[in-house]
Write a structure and sequence with these properties.
Blueprint: H1 5-19, H2 22-35, E1 56-60, E2 63-66, E3 75-77, E4 87-89, E5 102-107, E6 124-133, H3 137-151, H4 160-181, E7 189-198, E8 201-207, E9 213-216, E10 221-224, H5 234-242, E11 246-252, E12 257-264, E13 274-275, H6 277-280, E14 296-301
Antiparallel strand pairs: 1-2, 3-4, 5-6, 6-7, 7-8, 7-13, 8-14, 9-10, 11-12
Helix pairs in contact: 3-4
Length: 304
């Protein structure tokens, strides 16, 4: 069940202070991205980790560096469900902001609904990572509800790819409707990467640049499971332009260094996301076919 407008509005108000300044930070983030020479932070996430302030120190007028923010210990569990033997999660707010917009959702054992009591039901698990931007309301919504849209879909669990595709689209529609009813307008968005395990099969769905990798052969090999949705990607660039969008770069300050590729409408450095209502709905001068929440999905069988 999705939240009513009242509970959603209170969630939005809690994060309003973070989201209102996002647009003005765009050029600053581009400049910082150009100045930053190394980053040793991981992007793994855990729900419920609060804001952790971190210091910003200037070496000189032309270079900046960030002190690594303190991070709470990784949360681990050895609970089992089918082929899932254990899991762990961790999160931090990154190097640019002193608040955290990332969320994680873990449903280790997806129970069979009573309405489908006569059906066979494999062991199923759901793992979701949500990388919010412009506020945490969208990531909060996905953490609390995206799995419901997938699990309650008529195609689940026997056609997981279709359940993921239609579930993602349904969640996107619901969140945009909630944004329209909020006052002031809720503008946040989020990337997402979801892993759905059904029996001994794994299904990976991603929107944006949240990344999934898999290790194999006792950690000696690494396999990428997702493809970043970036405006600089050739296929995404072609899709954006074919649907009436534009891809561009900002000049970062007086140095003339170019910032990351961005998509318009949206002015984002990712080409797919949930939320970001102003980039998508025509009443806000958006284009629903440019910045989309359509996932890329792949499936494979897990084995020892």
């Amino acid at each position: 069940k999705t939240p009513g407008s009242g509970s959603f509005q209170s969630k939005v108000n809690q994060n309003r202070g973070h989201s209102t300044s996002w647009r003005s930070l765009e050029s600053t983030i581009d400049r910082l991205s150009a100045d930053l020479t190394s980053q040793n932070m991981t992007r793994n996430v855990r729900s419920s980790l609060g804001s952790i302030p971190f210091p910003l120190t200037s070496r000189n007028s032309n270079a900046r560096f960030f002190a690594t923010p303190q991070v709470e210990p990784t949360k681990c569990s050895v609970k089992e469900n089918g082929i899932v033997m254990a899991y762990a999660a961790n999160t931090n707010q990154g190097l640019v902001r002193n608040y955290n917009e990332d969320r994680v959702s873990i449903i280790l054992n997806i129970s069979k609904p009573t309405s489908r009591g006569g059906e066979a039901w494999p062991r199923c698990s759901f793992f979701g990572v949500y990388d919010g931007h412009g506020g945490s309301a969208c990531a909060d919504f996905l953490r609390d509800h995206l799995h419901h849209f997938v699990i309650k879909n008529q195609h689940f669990p026997f056609n997981p790819k279709e359940a993921l595709k239609t579930g993602f689209r349904a969640a996107e529609r619901e969140f945009l409707e909630l944004c329209k009813r909020s006052d002031p307008l809720e503008r946040s968005g989020s990337c997402a990467v979801v892993m759905l395990i059904v029996g001994d099969n794994c299904y990976l769905a991603n929107v944006g640049d949240s990344r999934a990798v898999m290790s194999g052969e006792r950690g000696t090999k690494i396999y990428p499971l997702s493809k970043d949705h970036k405006p600089s990607d050739e296929s995404e660039h072609q899709r954006i332009v074919a649907n009436g969008g534009r891809v561009y770069q900002n000049v970062a300050g007086s140095s003339g260094v170019l910032g990351p590729w961005r998509v318009f409408p949206g002015r984002l450095s990712v080409s797919r996301s949930f939320g970001d209502i102003e980039a998508k709905l025509t009443e806000y001068s958006g284009n629903p076919n440019v910045l989309t929440a359509d996932p890329d999905i792949k499936g494979f069988k897990l084995s020892e």
